[in-house]
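Good morning,

Attaching, inline, the backbone tokens for the sequence recovery test we're adding to the shared suite. The designed sequence is right after.
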């Protein structure tokens, strides 16, 4: 019965959880021409120190009204912001300078750089509306199995057989790479077979990597082990004892070969971290065999049923559980979504997705349209108001992320 409830809930939230809207409206993915990012030069940089402390909450948001009044960026600004840094697993680092072709400079850059006072963090609003996915029939199948755990304590989403999209601040604080990111790992959920007691080749290393991954957390000051006694509290778990699962869910940890971060995230460019560029792509050493999510260009909030967004991640207050949530977008700028999806630390870096129709075949398809950045205080009508914020995938960001994934612009002409 619990499994049926979860299936019904997920179907409703994906398709028609839209009280009061015109259900005859055509909610389709709108293909847009994507600007081209062309690599011009690549320079070697000094080896990073990997000494930055994880950030529980970002600061530097100038506010919704402030963003809307920012000037239209110059082409030279875009070239600087969209050039990118790459750090490799051996500690070497490069800077790639890009040229931007075909960009339509008709909207503000909305770089969020002004400082705001620090206040009490609140990421769950009112009644906790998150859902722990525990039934393995959902947990190990699409779209939930595209969510991954990052060894620094964040979440991410699979966007190719070898690439994970996450938040930049999960690996970099704007000045340096955070502690633990030198040996970065990505945890892919799998079913641990009961078997006959034989150890699978490579399992020893995976277990060691999993324990080491708990040492650092970009979103939690305490290691996972210390909060294990609190596991199970405040949960909405569906299908926990349904059926007879073949094995216990666990993580298979894979090393990261390289990490790409936009230069717009670096403090030397923006003066402070710019939340608009809080995204990064991790390239895995070994390809996975799971289904992944395609990228999509973020439509305006009215372009989705009920203005609803969805994402799943590994919230720190529910250790070892995949947590799913959905909610409506409250406000937006050209680069950010402001919403009240309940989310705790650990879910940062999750892929925010929509389910819209493909124009070619009229079939519904999910695509990643934003990255969950975390909790923010922003200026609204001269007052501080808190939101949970997502970084939208604009045509320019789509072009950059696509370039990181494919290495060229051949597959990035339309999004």
């Amino acid at each position: 019965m619990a499994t049926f409830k979860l299936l019904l809930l997920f179907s409703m939230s994906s398709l028609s959880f839209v009280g009061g809207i015109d259900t005859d409206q055509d909610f389709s993915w709108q293909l847009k021409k994507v600007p081209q990012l062309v690599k011009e030069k690549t320079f070697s940089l000094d080896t990073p120190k990997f000494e930055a402390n994880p950030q529980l909450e970002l600061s530097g948001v100038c506010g919704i009204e402030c963003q809307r009044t920012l000037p239209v960026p110059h082409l030279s600004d875009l070239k600087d912001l969209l050039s990118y840094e790459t750090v490799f697993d051996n500690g070497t680092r490069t800077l790639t300078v890009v040229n931007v072709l075909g960009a339509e400079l008709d909207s503000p850059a909305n770089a969020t750089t002004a400082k705001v006072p620090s206040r009490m963090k609140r990421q769950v609003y009112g009644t906790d509306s998150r859902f722990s996915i525990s039934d393995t029939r959902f947990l190990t199948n699409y779209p939930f199995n595209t969510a991954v755990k990052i060894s620094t304590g964040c979440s991410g989403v699979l966007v190719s057989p070898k690439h994970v999209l996450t938040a930049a601040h999960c690996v970099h604080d704007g000045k340096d790479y955070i502690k633990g990111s030198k040996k970065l790992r990505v945890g892919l959920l799998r079913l641990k077979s009961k078997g006959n007691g034989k150890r699978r080749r490579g399992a020893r290393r995976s277990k060691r990597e999993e324990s080491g991954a708990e040492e650092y957390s970009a979103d939690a000051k305490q290691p996972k082990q210390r909060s294990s006694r609190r596991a199970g509290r405040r949960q909405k778990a569906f299908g926990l004892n349904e059926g007879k699962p073949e094995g216990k869910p666990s993580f298979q940890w894979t090393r990261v070969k390289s990490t790409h971060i936009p230069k717009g995230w670096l403090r030397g460019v923006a003066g402070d971290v710019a939340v608009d560029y809080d995204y990064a792509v991790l390239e895995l050493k070994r390809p996975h065999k799971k289904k992944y999510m395609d990228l999509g260009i973020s439509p305006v909030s009215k372009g989705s049923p009920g203005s609803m967004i969805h994402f799943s991640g590994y919230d720190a207050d529910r250790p070892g559980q995949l947590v799913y949530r959905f909610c409506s977008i409250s406000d937006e700028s050209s680069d950010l979504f402001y919403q009240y999806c309940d989310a705790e630390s650990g879910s940062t870096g999750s892929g925010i997705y929509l389910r819209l129709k493909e124009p070619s075949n009229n079939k519904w398809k999910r695509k990643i349209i934003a990255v969950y950045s975390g909790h923010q205080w922003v200026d609204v009508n001269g007052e501080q108001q808190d939101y949970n914020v997502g970084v939208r995938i604009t045509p320019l960001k789509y072009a950059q992320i696509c370039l990181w994934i494919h290495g060229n612009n051949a597959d990035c002409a339309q999004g």
